[in-house]
Amino acid sequence: MERTFVMIKPDGVQRGLIANVIGAIEEKGYKLVGLKLLQLTSDKAAEHYIEHKGKPFYDSLLAYITSGPVVAMAWEGPDAVKGIRTLMGATNPLEAAPGSIRGRYALSIGKNIVHGSDSVQSAEREIGLYFSPKELVGYDRGTDKWL
Ligand code: DAT
Ligand code: MG
Prior knowledge:
The protein has 7 helices and 4 strands. It is of the alpha+beta class and 147 residues long.
């Protein structure tokens, strides 16, 4: 069982896609264990995207991710990190599989709707950036045995 961090980026919120993104992940079978709406400060955004510091797109990435509210979430399930990356589609929406979240809703790499952790280690770090342990809620669902 894994947990992963997912964020609906400002374009996803502004375009009214919160329910669609949550729905895609929920319908697949993953379990929502943490959820909040917030506006990122520059400091938080820099911490989140520390691995990209110095890259040509870094400044525009920070401007974009702080440009409006985001939805931060923790999701749980078997192989949740890789599974949710697959559900999101490739970073560049031009290459994202049709039917994936980015494949369905996004046109450009600079506005690709959603973030998802890329490894179990990143997931742990990113969940910790946005949630305190008591803000994460573990629970059983009647459907868990069918997944
Ligand atoms: P992902 O979000 O799929 O994990 P990433 O971690 O490589 O992708 O990059 C973080 C975000 O930065 C990505 O969602 C969009 C933006 N980005 C990445 N590569 C880019 C590029 N070559 N030009 C513009 N933006 C880019
Ligand atoms: Mg990434």
